[in-house]
Design a protein that fits this description.
By secondary structure, the protein is of the alpha+beta class. Helix content is about 40%, strand content about 20%. It has five helices and six strands, in the order E-E-E-H-E-E-H-H-E-H-H. The longest helix has 19 residues. It is globular.
Length: about 130
């Protein structure tokens, strides 16, 4: 297991996070997905969170991320969702006409303590294949 540290603590806090498009609308098309993945990567880097894996489906997102517990997974997800909604809705005007907001307020989060990171990463990366 790989550990990280900041000034106060040594940690390994991996989370599997899922959130959905408002009303589960299938609006995350290929050209939107490319920009969304880059936005998520940049935001994780900005807050020193390690993005282990990301998979964007047409109506929801799976994320496997390692977050500093002093910053917190809630803060990270809130910032990713807020920033990505704002940028994508400004860039892709069709998102403004189809939805009042891009994301639902809620999300799913689970720690990865009961399963190996490799298994969860495999699960996240296989989401698209299982949807076919």
């Amino acid at each position: 297991m790989k550990y990280k540290s900041n000034n106060n603590i040594v940690y390994s806090c991996h989370y599997h996070v899922i959130w959905c498009v408002k009303y589960r609308r299938k609006v995350l098309t290929e050209h939107i997905v490319e920009q969304l993945e880059q936005l998520i990567k940049n935001e994780c880097k900005k807050y020193r969170a390690e993005l282990v894996s990301v998979e964007v489906m047409s109506d929801h997102i799976h994320l496997l991320v390692d977050v500093d517990p002093q910053f917190g997974v809630h803060k990270l997800i809130k910032r990713i969702k807020g920033m990505s909604s704002r940028v994508l809705r400004d860039t892709f005007r069709e998102l403004r006409t189809k939805l009042p907001t891009l994301w639902t307020n809620s999300y799913f989060v689970a720690t990865t303590g009961g399963v190996t990171i490799e298994k969860i990463k495999e699960y996240v990366e296989n989401q698209k294949r299982s949807q076919r």
